[in-house]
């Protein structure tokens, strides 16, 4: 918190795909938290532009996040079936029939170059770890380096890679699972169980992530040994978040049992609110590996966002959805601070 000049132990989770607009990132940083740009799907120029937009709106530190480089995806035997499964949904939206997507060119190294020039105070990754050269370059720039872990073993690997911070992502979390050293089903550990077990074995600060929506959750995470929290879903319903209104409505009306972990949209397990596309594709089971499935479903998701059709959107959200509130980011930050102080005061006044 000192190195990032934070007055609240709150990191707005990077949310690649557009939810985390520069306005949201800047508002959170301006309020004393750490806004983070989810830059995984951005080109180097887009990363520089997003960072410049944040810097124009705040002089306070902010973060940038990428997906760690993954091995090139192999096209599976059921590739034709995966494309065919998406076709009826494209037809419903009057889109051309989907074609087999190409693997994207390797861009991680160029993205990192842009991150190094971005002026961000923190660089974080999920899905694994970058090479030692990247970690060294980030540190040479004076930036902090953070990586996501979903098991204790992964947290130890994050620490061994030289990270300054480990983000312990519980199974409640919205969006993609950060798991990189285990089958994802084995790494579905709840935040309550994961955070203290990670805090017991690492000597770097732990950031708790997954299902934290209000000050009670922040106080609980601090009690479990976390130094701060990383919250995604809670910021998606802020006015500054760049998501379609249909997505915001889906979160605000969702109950705690509404989300599932699915590979249907991107090819990688991610938690979102169940809808017709997710259920149909999961039932068929023919899904391309990440990021090919992501590319395959992108035209459909883009059209659905324009048309306000939530049954085709990847509605990434965590299990805390009932606690989502519609407000501005500054207002949310003020409420979080007051609620955290109140929860801590309430607990402090209890007799042990
Ligand atoms: C819409 C959305 C997009 C996300 N994108 C990213 C991302 O690009 N990088 C990342 O490290 N985590 C990403 N996450 C996961 C968050 O970092 C975090 O683990 C999660 O939001 C915590 O759970 P919560 O949503 O219940 O707060 C995303 C989460 C959501 C909801």
UniProtKB/TrEMBL annotation:
SUPFAM superfamilies: Inosine monophosphate dehydrogenase (IMPDH). One of its GO terms (biological process) is response to toxic substance. It comes from the Bacteria. InterPro entries: Aldolase_TIM, NMO. Keywords: Detoxification, Flavoprotein, FMN, Monooxygenase, Nucleotide-binding, Oxidoreductase. It catalyses: 3 propionate 3-nitronate + 3 O2 + H2O = 3 3-oxopropanoate + 2 nitrate + nitrite + H2O2 + 3 H(+). Its cofactor is FMN. One of its GO terms (molecular function) is nucleotide binding. It holds the Pfam family NMO. Belongs to the nitronate monooxygenase family. NMO class I subfamily. This is Nitronate monooxygenase.
């Amino acid at each position: 918190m000192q190195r990032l000049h934070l007055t609240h132990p709150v990191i707005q989770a990077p949310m690649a795909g557009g939810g985390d607009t520069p306005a949201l990132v800047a508002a959170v940083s301006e309020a004393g938290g750490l806004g983070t740009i989810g830059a995984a799907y951005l080109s180097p120029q887009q990363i520089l532009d997003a960072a410049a937009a944040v810097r124009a709106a705040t002089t306070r530190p902010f973060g940038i996040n990428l997906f760690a480089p993954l091995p090139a995806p192999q096209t599976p035997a059921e590739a034709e079936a995966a494309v065919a499964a998406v076709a009826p949904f494209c037809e419903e939206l009057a889109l051309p029939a989907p074609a087999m997507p190409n693997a994207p060119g390797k861009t991680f190294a160029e993205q990192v170059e842009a991150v190094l020039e971005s002026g961000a105070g923190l660089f974080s990754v999920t899905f694994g770890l970058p090479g030692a050269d990247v970690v060294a370059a980030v540190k040479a720039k004076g930036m902090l380096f953070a990586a996501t872990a979903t098991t204790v073993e992964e947290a130890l690997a994050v620490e061994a890679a030289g990270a300054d911070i480990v983000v312990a992502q519980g199974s409640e979390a919205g969006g993609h699972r950060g798991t990189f050293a285990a089958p994802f089903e084995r790494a579905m550990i709840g935040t309550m169980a994961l955070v203290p077990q990670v805090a017991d074995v690492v000597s770097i600060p732990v950031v708790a992530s997954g299902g934290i929506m209000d000050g009670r959750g922040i106080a609980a995470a601090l009690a479990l040994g976390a130094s701060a929290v990383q919250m995604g879903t809670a910021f998606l319903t802020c006015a500054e978040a760049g998501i379609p209104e249909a997505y915001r409505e889906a979160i605000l009306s969702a109950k705690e049992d509404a989300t599932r972990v699915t590979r249907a949209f991107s090819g990688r397990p991610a938690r979102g609110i169940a809808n017709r596309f997710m259920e149909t594709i999961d039932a068929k089971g023919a899904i391309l590996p990440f990021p090919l499935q992501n590319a395959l479903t992108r035209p459909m998701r883009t059209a659905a966002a324009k048309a306000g059709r939530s049954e085709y959107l990847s509605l990434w959200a965590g299990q805390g959805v009932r606690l989502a509130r519609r407000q501005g980011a500054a207002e949310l930050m003020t409420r979080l601070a007051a609620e955290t102080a109140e929860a801590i005061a309430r607990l402090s006044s209890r007799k042990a």
